[in-house]
Amino acid sequence: MSFVWGAATAAYQIEGAADEDGRVPSIWDTYSRTPGRVRDGDTGDVATDHYHRWAQDVETMSALGLDAYRFSIAWPRIHDQRGIDFYSRLVDALLERGIAPVATLYHWDLPQSLEDAGGWPARDTAYRFAEYAERIGAALGDRVHTWTTLNEPWCSAFLGYASGVHAPGRTEPAAALAAAHHLNLAHGLAARVLPGPVSVTLNLHHVRGDAEAARRVDAVANRVFLGPMLDGAYPADLLEDTAHITDWSFVRDGDEATIAAPLDVLGVNYYTPTLVRPWNGGTPRATADGHGDGTASPWVGCDDVEFVRQPGPYTEMGWSIDPTGLTDLLLRLHRDHPDTPLMITENGAAFDDQIDADGRIHDQRRIDYLRDHLAAVGRAMKAGADVRGYFVWSLLDNFEWAHGYSKRFGIVHVDYATQERTWKDSAHWYRDHIAGRPLG
């Protein structure tokens, strides 16, 4: 199988058209419209207007020479046939240009009505997700190259329900663990009704530092998903570490077997490694993820762990740039799950991009970031990791969740006032890199 080169986006971050063609409200509509939640009061109501400019964006993908495009389907949009028709047109246009459609069913935009009924901590949400998967799977059929059930369920569960820095903004540790389980269950149920190859995308944390601290974080960051999905069971140490928070009674007989549906490929999102050490219980923790400063922490069951800011250089997100973590993570997955093919489904960086006097965006730091991380993928492959492809994050500048429009990840610049698209130097570089087909 040839190596797949692609780019990725997410529906709420780019589509806009929040109230058009029967789309119903999502938790991110509610969250972003709540004062104080998102920087500068930004919302995704317009985003980059992809819903109306999708044909132009597909032409950009074709000009870049992409093999594949990873996009998400907005669950709130498929309640109306006009929403389904939008994705059908998009898929057909991609196929006409030889671009494989890679469709993610859930990239964080839960319909608000389901949150009102309990959200992901409620078991019924998993069943509603399976119904949604079956409906959209039937509509798009085998035109989709690969179906991705969930994007980064760690963020959905722990940022959404433990720390509250993502929608729906709840700070309930026990609910976060229940949400993680029901996201896992939703994945397993959906995988059994989707046509064609199935994947899931995890933002796996490469954790370094003190061994015991790293073990605790690895349990709630990685193995809470890898355990049931790939090994058929939750790890015992995770259950022990969190027993004071919940008794895990939401896990019913047969759930873990359902979650362990066969995977055709495991999607891996990587941006930066995680450094931890024991917390001495003294002064308030200054943590790399902004917690320990009076805000709630997403690291459920890790109260005795400190997250340490790593050495620079840093991206605009404040994340250290360290491609060795990507090599190490891929080799860890190859060692632990040698029969599971891997795909880099997100990798990229936010920088303070400016249009220069010559009308171009000279984002050399992003080019360096991409080159070094692709080299890291190449090293892992040479050491035996079965990596099938790479998707840059992101095709377009977009609505970056709680950061609003203040962080730019795209290789294509978007003027949010005019919606004009401009290729950054990194887009030209990525096009040339794809044409040459090197792996690093």
Condensed summary:
This is Beta-glucosidase. This protein is of the alpha/beta class and 440 residues long. The protein has 14 helices and 13 strands.
Write the layout of secondary structure elements.
Blueprint: E1 4-8, H1 11-14, H2 27-32, H3 50-64, E2 68-72, H4 81-96, E3 100-106, H5 112-116, H6 124-140, E4 146-151, H7 153-161, H8 173-191, E5 198-202, E6 207-209, H9 211-231, H10 236-241, H11 255-259, E7 265-269, E8 274-278, E9 305-307, H12 324-336, E10 342-346, H13 364-382, E11 387-393, E12 412-414, E13 421-423, H14 425-436
Parallel strand pairs: 1-2, 1-11, 2-3, 3-4, 4-5, 5-7, 6-8, 7-10, 10-11
Antiparallel strand pairs: 8-9, 12-13
Count of extended strands:
13
Shape: globular
Assigned CATH class: Alpha Beta
How many helical stretches? 14
What gyration radius follows from the Cα positions, in whole Å? 20 Å
CATH homologous superfamily caption = Glycosidases
CATH architecture: Alpha-Beta Barrel
Low-confidence stretches: 286-294
Major β-sheet profile: 8 strands, parallel, barrel
Distance between the termini: 18 Å
Beta-strand content bin: 5-15%
